[in-house]
UniProtKB/TrEMBL annotation:
InterPro entries: Isochorismatase-like_dom, Isochorismatase-like_hydrls, Isochorismatase-like_sf. The keyword Hydrolase applies. Residues 10-183 form the Isochorismatase-like domain. It comes from Streptomyces himastatinicus ATCC 53653. Keywords: Hydrolase. GO terms for molecular function: hydrolase activity. This is Isochorismatase. It comes from the Bacteria. Pfam families: Isochorismatase (PF00857).
């Protein structure tokens, strides 16, 4: 992570691109487009941080009061769950950091902030599934923590296209620059 020459304060956060989550996205060009963003970042020397949701066996971190995580089936998003694996199209390289979170935001229950601080990373480029989940929660928390933000609108996906549109066109622009994978990748050349 340290020593990248271009945009040394920037990191691409690729969030919740896990097999069982991505399988719910019906858009066939989503993963190829996200792969383009990951490759552009790698080629520009921008760290790619992979954020995943993960729990211990038995989900001791997930309260029954939590509507999202308390309702998970036994074994979901544990080390033994093949659906918890990062999608092979976006597989991390050996030198790329994988952040495991315990809630919706990439910051919740993870060491993300420590990794960012240690790497001198203050500009976060966000992509992932779902726009109304991890992207929204991470964007809001990162803005409150004074990170500079860019959201790759077409690098995000949501089961509800209207919610995705409202977030990327009306909500995110209040706290982040919103652009496309192609436009962002073009700025790195």
């Amino acid at each position: 992570m340290k020593g990248s020459t271009v945009m040394s304060d920037t990191a691409l956060l690729v969030m919740d691109i896990q097999k069982s989550i991505v399988d719910r996205i019906a858009t066939p060009d989503y993963l190829p487009r996200l792969t383009q963003a990951v490759e552009a970042a790698r080629n520009a020397g921008i760290p790619v941080l992979h954020v995943v949701v993960g729990f211990r066996s038995g989900h001791p971190e997930a309260s029954g009061r939590n509507k999202t995580f308390g309702a998970l089936p036994e074994g979901a998003f544990t080390l033994k769950d093949p659906g918890a694996a990062i999608h092979p199209d976006i597989a991390p390289r050996p030198d790329e950091v994988v952040i495991t979170k315990k809630r919706i935001s990439a910051f919740a229950g993870s060491d993300l902030e420590m990794v960012l601080r240690s790497g001198g990373l203050s500009h976060l480029v966000l992509a992932g599934v779902a726009t109304s989940g991890v992207v929204l929660s991470t964007c809001r928390q990162a803005a409150d923590l004074d990170y500079r933000l860019t959201v790759l609108a077409d690098g995000c996906a949501d089961a509800d296209e209207e919610v995705h549109r409202v977030l990327t066109e009306k909500v995110f622009p209040r706290q982040a620059e919103v652009t496309t994978v192609e436009e962002w990748s073009g700025t790195l050349s």
